[in-house]
């Protein structure tokens, strides 16, 4: 049986899914949280001896290397994998591929070094992900490994959309441009939307809204990303859980003076970690808390919610203008998939564009067309599945590669 492992490593977490391919059945999935902190938590849901089972353990895990070793020990103990040779490929989600990686790539030593060297574009992610890849290589030295970049789907952006209006040589010399993120998710949901609409993606203009703790919107024309709201880093664009999204850069020196900050990094940390829904509401970065507080009359939570909705509407509207129309708008990720009221709020302000939510169809967390029949622009809810997209990339790249086990 062919198994492919999909790995998504964050700065203190490691998520994985093990698939049986090519039928894409999930054999096991899990999460290791609080790596590097005390009381790390390991949870695995898996299928063994014809039953669905759950494993949970709390123990200290000092670093990602230990996490990977433990993961494989548990694979054997829980009989999820009996021999490492059953795993025919591992796909690693990598935050930034810069301009070096316009597509997924088979991992070599050089590729790992390049991923590490792109750390300036994703400091919290790329270096940690390079380390995790090395740890997996230690455990499975002969297994095909593929890097799948959050940026690759946006490699098709035209220059008028990826360039900032600053001196051109900063792009040439330093690579300052829009890279975008969440590409695996935008790509997956755009393809699913075309399938659900029963139309070839080549004929469609789609606006995809990935609304999670991190959030971005993409304009997808003929299956290719032509614009997206995140930028040089994932700080740009929409109002997010703790990130500000777009601000006037002149605010930075002004606030640094007012706050007595000497380091610009401290100011950027405020925009990354203390802004967005959290900064506006003063309550929480979690949309569930914001919605609950807003319903019970908290004025700042209500304001945070309104600003969140407003920014998503602005991006949808501007991308419809850029593509000269749209056939579909797709919602995904934690907020997009789960909050029918936020989807309703966003779409109700876009009725002029020919969008109308069907309340009954919108009452779902599953894949569905949620707009009224006959509406000019279809609206869809499509739960994202970056893990399966990563496993598919491993299959695609593995076809021409000789695997030694
Ligand atoms: P991440 O970017 O960390 O992967 P997720 O895609 O998991 O984030 O999204 C997390 C966000 O989704 C949080 O703001 C959370 O509150 C929100 N969310 C999850 N379920 C719901 C829900 N039922 N209603 C509103 N928001 C929700």
Protein architecture, described:
The protein has helices at 64-77, 109-117, 126-139, 159-162, 169-174, 183-197, 251-259, 264-273, 276-281, 287-295, 299-322, 333-338, 340-348, 359-362, 386-398, and strands spanning 2-9, 14-21, 25-33, 40-48, 51-59, 87-94, 105-106, 144-149, 205-211, 215-221, 224-228, 328-332, 368-369, 378-381. The strands form two sheets. It has an eight-stranded mixed β-sheet with strand order 5-4-3-2-1-6-8-7. It has a six-stranded mixed β-sheet with strand order 11-10-9-12-14-13, with helices on both faces. It is globular. The model has no long low-confidence stretch (mean pLDDT 95). Helix 1 (64-77) crosses helix 3. The protein has 405 residues and is an alpha/beta fold. The chain folds into two domains: 2-149, Nucleotidyltransferase, domain 5, CATH 3.30.420.40; 198-381, Nucleotidyltransferase, domain 5. The structure holds adenosine-5'-diphosphate. Residues 212-214, 241, 286-288, 291, 333-335, 338-339 line the site of adenosine-5'-diphosphate.
Indicate the topology.
Layout: E1 2-9, E2 14-21, E3 25-33, E4 40-48, E5 51-59, H1 64-77, E6 87-94, E7 105-106, H2 109-117, H3 126-139, E8 144-149, H4 159-162, H5 169-174, H6 183-197, E9 205-211, E10 215-221, E11 224-228, H7 251-259, H8 264-273, H9 276-281, H10 287-295, H11 299-322, E12 328-332, H12 333-338, H13 340-348, H14 359-362, E13 368-369, E14 378-381, H15 386-398
Parallel strand pairs: 1-6, 6-8, 9-12, 12-14
Antiparallel strand pairs: 1-2, 2-3, 3-4, 4-5, 7-8, 9-10, 10-11, 13-14
Helix pairs in contact: 1-3, 2-3, 10-11, 11-13
